[in-house]
UniProtKB/TrEMBL annotation:
GO terms for biological process: peptide transport. The keyword ATP-binding applies. InterPro entries: AAA+_ATPase, ABC_transporter-like_ATP-bd, ABC_transporter-like_CS, Oligopep_ABC_C, P-loop_NTPase. SMART domains: AAA. This is ABC transporter ATP-binding protein. Residues 6-257 form the ABC transporter domain. Keywords: ATP-binding, Nucleotide-binding, Transport. It comes from Oliverpabstia intestinalis.
Amino acid sequence: MADKLLEVKGVSKIFRVGGMLRGKKLVAVDNVSLSIDNDKPVILSIVGESGCGKSTLCKMILRLHNPDMGDIVMDGKSYADKKSYDPKQFKLDVQPIFQNPYESFSARKTVDTYLYNTALRLGIAKNRAEADKVVDEALKSVGMSLAVVKGKYATQFSGGELQRVSIARALITRPKLIIADEPVAAIDASMKMNIVNLFKELRDKYKISFIYITHDLSTAYYVSDYIATLYRGCLIEYGPAKQIMDNPAHPYTELLMSSVPRVGDKWEKEIAMPDMEGKEYAVEYCKFAPRCPYATDECRQKRPDAKDMGNGRMVLCCHPLCQQTKEA
Ligand SMILES: Nc1ncnc2c1ncn2[C@@H]1O[C@H](COP(=O)(O)OP(=O)(O)OP(=O)(O)O)[C@@H](O)[C@H]1O
């Protein structure tokens, strides 16, 4: 077993927007590095406002996009080494959960069909009787059961219940990593904590790590072991969640944290300035400088280097708001 479950190494993704001839390059993910250890499962939240590159980064981890630069290594296997890629093993190890559970299940098939398919097609169960057991166990892990779910269609569940079924489906493969892209965004505020609590339970019980992509800072605040803040494609702050949230080093993280925490709150309405998005993606110096209350000439002249704050913490800022992190 490799030391690291996941290593994202200097990864970038460049899109061409506005046509092939007149279009421009948009660096949606810009030289991002982060990692998750194999021996200690964690919940890593990726936060940042709309369009900062959260989904693009996760699509690269899920192998739905190829990185244009850098590499991703999953449990010791480099994505660049296409020959050693085993799609079935990858599906067993890494499972996605999407934002809207009603889009994950067709209205024409009963939801248990999806769970049986996952169990049988990926070889977790050899026959229907074994699949009954596997599916029931997975549903029980999320507080449901086959008896309750069997024969029902997606529309017969609430959003929170159906998201639990999606999580049960992901659990069937006994994954090492679950990537949940805005899993509570389409769910009633009262059920949000219920779902993120489940992530904590599953982390501890089954030793699964989670990448939790979210706009919802209040749930990120509550659930995360580590936080990665993205801004215009750059990883601007990364490290242990409590340290970052209590004592942010980047002015953008400070701005985000000032809106924490009320369940269901989003910060984007207060601070997003979409008209600046294209310009900020393109700037050659610090991408946050145009909005930063502390920006100096230095910030408007060069890209900041990643500063190691100690204790696994990193900040991308010319003038971090705090210096060395104390040991946890
Ligand atoms: N296939 C694509 N082609 C061109 N541009 C893209 C493509 N996918 C994403 N982008 C652009 O890349 C940037 C990052 O998008 P991404 O979806 O990763 O952001 P996000 O942080 O997940 O946003 P949201 O929270 O709204 O889902 C955005 O400016 C987006 O418009």
